[in-house]
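Milestone 3.1: sequence recovery, worked example.
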């Protein structure tokens, strides 16, 4: 269920790699492809961390901008 939700959010944000990986993970879970779960989970985790790092960069740029103009 979580992978389905993240897939939708990633699609909304335009994070295509995360969206595609979440879809693979969701299907592997639904179809009980246990051999693929570790591979897809690892890929999912990597893509999720990349997206979170981009959010952090945006957050720090915003703070830096706010401090500079106060």
């Amino acid at each position: 269920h979580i992978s389905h939700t993240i897939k939708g959010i990633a699609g909304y944000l335009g994070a295509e790699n995360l969206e595609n990986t979440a879809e693979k993970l969701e299907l592997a879970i639904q179809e009980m492809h246990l051999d693929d779960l570790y591979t897809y989970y690892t890929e999912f985790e990597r893509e999720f961390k990349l997206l979170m790092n981009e959010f952090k960069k945006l957050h720090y740029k915003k703070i830096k901008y706010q401090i500079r103009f106060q």
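The two ends are 43 Å apart (CA to CA). DSSP finds three helices and no strands in the chain.
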